[in-house]
Amino acid sequence: MRAMADKENCTRVTRLSKKRAAEAMAAPLQQQSKKRVVLGEITSGPNVGLSQISEQQKLKPRRAKRKVLKAVAEEGVTEKGKNEDRGIYIDAKSDDPQMCAAYVSEIYEYIRQMELQQKRRPLPDYIEKVQKDLSANMRGILVDWLIEVAEEYALLPDTLYLAVSYIDRFLSTNVLTRQKLQLLGVSSMLIASKYEEISPRNVEEFCYITDNTYTKDEVVEMEADVLKSLKFELGSPTIKTFLRRFTQVSQEDYKTAKLQLEFLGYYLAELSLLDYSCLKFLPSLVAAAVIFLSRFTLQPNLHPWNKALQQYSGYKPSSLKQCVLIIHDLQLSRRGGALIAIREKYKQHKFKCVSTLSSPPEIPDSYFEDVIA
User: Where are the domains of the chain?
Assistant: First the structure.
């Protein structure tokens, strides 16, 4: 009798377990426990695993918004209205979450105000006014070497641009001997790496890259001096900050390979880092000049500027002339020809060999006239 009762109880337990399992399988999605999403596994965007809204539900309002914006852009009453609506449309078209399509205009307006702040700008003539043992050529050699370091350690471009910015800002207020210039370079790169990289390089690696010319204690001490000099104001807009958006806009009406235009812009922007005379220009102006020259290099018979670029950058062709001519000389090796790290870097096939592209020796003066057809 007891054996039969035990068997019956087991049968009931089994049936109950199966019933519970079936109910769990049929339960609505929202009643199940939320899946934990490991950040390292996210590959298709920052919102993966954070919402249960279907992809179709997400796409419908986006498509509707694009349709309305396109209609507004095409049917604007005034020319100004057309340009502004077209600009919104260009922003809204971006599926890249880092472009922040919903509020990109406000972000860039804030960044433009930030780049004007005196505390984030180096002196354009600090070598003449502050330094006694350094020259513009020494600075160029240092930057050229740091580009090799960034390439060797696979650092982000933003890390390189910030490091150069820290160097120039530090030298604008602190006298330094040439023996410590490389020390300043690696310490600035270390700070920028900690600010930008997910996994920054350690101090020992930056000592090693200098062939152990400096000790760990010296690098850390210089790091502290740089931070105090900058008053820990590390997040400054750079040429790369503006180049992202200007490149996107410049590709809207371009017929050539977009990747080639993008890499050519990166190449010319890094070339501008070498030249001390580019410090007098705002990062946004240099980025605009880079786009101007990139388009001229790829299609020299077409005007490199248009109304959309002028609207987004805020610069007319005449405002870009001086900067464009300097970067053009760098591209043709009429300036900084002995500094070859960038040229060798962009000879690689992964960068479409853009440093080997030829550019006409002269840019027509008509391209710098403010009237754009």
Answer: 57-115, 124-230, 239-368
The tokens for 227 are: 């931070």
Q: Report how far residue 80's alpha carbon sits from residue 230's, in angstroms, rounded to the nearest whole number.
A: 41
Q: Determine contact, residues 117/254, Cβ cutoff 8 Å.
A: no
Tokens for 96, please give them.
């890249």
Q: Say whether domain 239-368 belongs to CATH 1.10.472.10.
A: yes
The ranges of the chain with pLDDT < 70 are: 1-101, 253-257, 371-373
- 151, 259, 346 from 193: Cα distances, Å: 13, 26, 22
Which pLDDT belongs to residue 170?
94
φ/ψ (deg, to 5) at 63: -65, -40
Query: How confident is the model at residue 64, as a pLDDT?
Result: 40
Query: What is the CATH topology of the domain spanning 124-230?
Result: Cyclin A; domain 1 (1.10.472)
Tens of pLDDT, residues 349-371: 888 888 888 888 998 888 888 76
As a three-state string, the secondary structure of the chain is CHHHHHHHHHHHHHHHHHHHHHHHHHCCHHHCCCCCCCHHHCCCCCCCCCCCCCHHHHHHHHHHHHHHHHHHHHCCCCHHHHHHHHHHHHHHHCCCHHHCCCCHHHHHHHHHHHHCCHHHCCCCCHHHHCCCCCCHHHHHHHHHHHHHHHHHCCCCHHHHHHHHHHHHHHHCCCCCCHHHHHHHHHHHHHHHHHHHCCCCCCHHHHHHHCCCCCCHHHHHHHHHHHHHHHCCCCCCCCHHHHHHHHHHHHCCCCCCCHHHHHHHHHHHHHHHHHCHHHHHCCHHHHHHHHHHHHHHHHCCCCCCCCHHHHHHHCCCHHHHHHHHHHHHHHHCCCCCCCCCHHHHHCCCHHHCCHHHCCCCCCCCHHHHCCCCC
